Task: inverse folding
């Protein structure tokens, strides 16, 4: 049925605001990247190792992108011939948007790693931690901003065009392209990462009795390259796809509702509020990290970003849709995201780890069994948390509520991705 755009003029300014917030995020990312060059890259030996990591990362990504581009072109031709040209074009744009944050993040990570090392050497843990966070924030902001610009621009262009009913096909093509690229980026980078990691340990420790991460072992350079291509570029594409897909699914459900327009606008507004909340948190990162262990610092950033987002959502939801139930749905999604993070942290650093250590005392077999059992049990709490969130969201707002809770859970994507990219930077 035709898409009803009654009252569109009331939302036109809001739709224009959404990609504008994304552009502000890109500006933040660019300024953050160039500010990294204000810090010392260390001595000649440090710069040499960092240069090899940077070069290896670029070589891998270029080769990966070339192969992926051939598959993308083939898929584009098939989509254009079997579906429609607008969907095929959106497929290409979605793939490009998934690729761009990964490349930006790789550049930032390989620039920040050596400077983080020098900061730790000269000024200690606090300075190194905040500098690594600053470099990782470039990646986090890029993921959220590019998604916001891409989806916001498509929605604005199509809803103001001659055939607004084609929005679902276009944004579905966009997220399909993002998913297509993320598959190769995440899986390809992940396989390389783990292969290099195991290879470095086998050659260095077992054959030559070298310490772990000794730069004299060439496989260690490959291991550090793998951290960047898998946990920065690959994970960036993967989280971009998850973030985009949750919003697109909610937008498509909104198109079938009685009043589609406000329900189309709401997920985009929540995306923009989430990015603003993350930018404010990143601006406060130095204060949040002062006199705090890195783990505490990162946990604080998640909680503060979600608090900012909750305040923004509380103000925006009644203004956009006038539905109080939707705020409950959004808070369920926020709580779900925080709880999953805390549950995962407990299983990766709490009593379950000490249990695996105890099991390891009697050999490799009991180590494997202990780790496997903890891994299985560790999946239970997140599953129950997600199930409870789905029940709450479905009861409060139906299928649309489930989609909206997923959008809320991933709304602070810039901080989520920042914390993920923080690991490879400090590891390098």
Result:
């Amino acid at each position: 049925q035709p898409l009803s755009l009654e009252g569109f003029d009331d939302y036109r300014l809001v739709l224009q605001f959404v990609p504008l917030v994304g552009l502000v995020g890109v500006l933040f990312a660019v300024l953050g990247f160039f500010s990294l060059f204000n810090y010392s890259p260390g001595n000649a030996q440090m710069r040499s190792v960092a240069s090899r990591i940077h070069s290896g990362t670029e070589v891998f990504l270029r080769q990966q992108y070339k192969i992926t581009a051939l598959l993308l072109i083939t898929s584009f031709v098939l989509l254009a011939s079997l579906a429609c040209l607008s969907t095929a074009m959106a497929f290409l744009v979605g793939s490009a948007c998934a690729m761009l944050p990964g490349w930006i993040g790789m550049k930032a990570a390989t620039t920040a790693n050596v400077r983080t090392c020098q900061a730790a050497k000269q000024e200690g843990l606090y300075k190194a931690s905040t500098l690594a966070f600053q470099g990782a924030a470039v990646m986090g902001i890029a993921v959220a901003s590019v998604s916001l610009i891409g989806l916001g621009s498509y929605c604005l262009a199509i809803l103001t065009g001659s055939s607004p009913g084609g929005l679902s096909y276009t944004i579905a093509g966009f997220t399909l392209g993002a998913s297509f690229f993320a598959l190769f980026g995440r899986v390809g980078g992940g396989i390389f990462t783990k292969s290099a990691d195991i290879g470095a340990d086998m050659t260095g420790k077992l054959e030559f009795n070298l310490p772990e991460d000794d730069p004299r072992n060439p496989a260690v350079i490959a291991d550090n390259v793998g951290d960047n291509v898998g946990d920065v570029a690959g994970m960036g594409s993967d989280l971009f796809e998850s973030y985009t897909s949750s919003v697109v699914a909610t937008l498509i459900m909104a198109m079938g509702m009685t009043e589609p327009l406000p329900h189309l606008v709401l997920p985009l507004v929540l995306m923009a509020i989430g990015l603003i909340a993350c930018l404010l948190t990143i601006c406060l990162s130095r204060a949040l990290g002062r006199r705090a262990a890195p783990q505490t610092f990162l946990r604080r950033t998640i909680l503060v970003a979600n608090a900012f987002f909750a305040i923004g959502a509380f103000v925006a939801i009644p203004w956009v849709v006038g539905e109080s139930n939707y705020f409950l749905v959004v808070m369920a999604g926020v709580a779900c995201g925080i709880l999953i993070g805390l549950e995962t942290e407990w299983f990766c650093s709490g009593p379950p780890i000490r249990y695996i250590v105890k099991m390891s005392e009697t050999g490799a077999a009991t180590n494997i069994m202990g780790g496997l059992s903890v891994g299985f049990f560790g999946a239970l709490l997140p599953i129950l948390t997600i199930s409870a969130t789905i029940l709450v969201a479905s009861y409060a707002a139906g299928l649309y509520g489930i989609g909206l809770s997923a959008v809320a859970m991933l709304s602070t994507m810039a901080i989520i991705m920042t914390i993920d990219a923080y690991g490879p930077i400090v590891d390098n």
Summary: The chain has one domain: 8-427.
